[in-house]
Task: inverse folding
């Protein structure tokens, strides 16, 4: 005959240190914010999981599944992580998004001091957060936006002078100092659709198929992947319909070999001067993509958060699809939130192959360091 003891009917509660949520608190996991909260008896506060405060002793911690449960302790909200309001990260993203709108809507480029004052932050703090979120300084973001406005004006048929002033330049001299850098050619040639611009190109072969690399005077303007070299050349012609395409010589083919080498062995790295042509928003996205380390992936939602546009996941996907610099701007490192590969302009099989190679390269590097 077995006797069931009372304590067996009521097993001891799981200790906080053994709860999987405690590991997320120790890691200051931002993705856990909003899923649960915790309170600390010795300090009398409740916090979000990512709170940057000094780590509490788990024996003094209680975990709460809802914010109301955390409030019911009678403790006060932590001043550092503000568990009752938006997280610091979300607040910074909103602040930067507001600054981006201010830049885009201003007749003339606002100064760093004006942007920082509007955000209620010091100039140094604002500058640091803006770059962390967008990948660009406020000045670079403003320049990219004005360049996009000039390009749009010229494409819409405006005169060069009208496009310059409509974009917020208060003198043509200031614009012409940077015009070739901004447009990749003179404004008049850009207005003519790139007529007479010279684009050098060559096609190489890799285990993923054909690779076409094309460059302007400024830098590499296209890296295209595919099965048919002739189709890649036609694609290049469609992208630069009025430019003069010139087949690359032996020296240029060496550049193509570098790109092929990177595709085969990602650990080699790929450091090339680029001629990146896109809107200000696209350039923000592409800069964020270039900051993703080899062997890592992020979701479209994560990129949206990083550039201060948390609701722009569809626009992020569109910017990835518009990327004409395969592997140099690694849009293959962006996947869906559920881990699915999603679309890729050069085929899902190539995307998977690139990610597998980069993951293997990253693992090999870690083994060597260990």
Result:
């Amino acid at each position: 005959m077995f006797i069931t003891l009372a304590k067996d009917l009521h097993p001891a509660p799981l200790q906080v240190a053994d709860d999987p949520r405690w590991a997320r608190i120790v890691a200051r996991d931002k993705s856990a914010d909003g899923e649960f909260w915790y309170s600390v008896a010795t300090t009398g506060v409740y916090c979000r999981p990512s709170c940057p405060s000094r780590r509490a002793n788990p024996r003094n911690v209680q975990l709460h599944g809802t914010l109301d449960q955390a409030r019911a302790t009678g403790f006060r909200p932590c001043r550092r992580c503000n568990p009752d309001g938006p997280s610091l990260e979300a607040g910074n993203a909103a602040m930067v998004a507001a600054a981006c709108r201010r830049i885009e809507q201003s007749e003339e480029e606002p100064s760093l001091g004006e942007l920082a004052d509007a955000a209620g932050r010091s100039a140094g703090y604002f500058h640091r957060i803006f770059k962390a979120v967008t990948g660009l300084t406020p000045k670079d973001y403003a320049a990219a936006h004005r360049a996009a406005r000039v390009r749009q004006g010229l494409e819409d048929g405006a005169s060069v002078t009208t496009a310059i002033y409509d974009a917020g330049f208060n003198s043509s001299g200031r614009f012409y100092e940077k015009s070739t850098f901004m447009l990749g050619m003179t404004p008049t040639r850009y207005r003519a659709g790139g007529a007479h611009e010279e684009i050098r190109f060559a096609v190489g072969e890799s285990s993923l198929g054909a690779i076409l690399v094309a460059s302007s005077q400024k830098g590499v303007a296209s890296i295209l992947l595919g099965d048919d070299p002739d189709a890649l050349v036609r694609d290049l012609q469609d992208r630069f319909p009025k430019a003069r395409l010139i087949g690359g010589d032996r020296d240029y083919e060496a550049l193509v070999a570098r790109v092929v080498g990177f595709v085969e062995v990602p650990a080699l790295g790929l450091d090339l001067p680029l001629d990146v042509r896109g809107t200000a928003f696209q350039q923000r996205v592409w800069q964020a993509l270039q900051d993703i380390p080899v062997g890592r992936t992020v979701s479209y939602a994560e990129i949206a958060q990083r550039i201060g546009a948390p609701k722009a996941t569809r626009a992020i996907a569109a910017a990835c699809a518009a990327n004409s610099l395969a592997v140099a701007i690694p849009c293959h490192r962006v996947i869906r939130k559920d881990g699915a590969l999603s679309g890729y302009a050069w085929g899902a099989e190539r995307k998977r192959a690139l990610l597998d190679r980069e993951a293997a390269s990253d693992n090999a590097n870690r083994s060597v360091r260990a």
Remarks:
- Confidence is low (pLDDT under 50) at residues 1-12, 170-177.
- The longest helix spans residues 348-369.
- Residues 321 and 345 are 6 Å apart (CA to CA).
- The chain is about 45% helix and 10% strand.
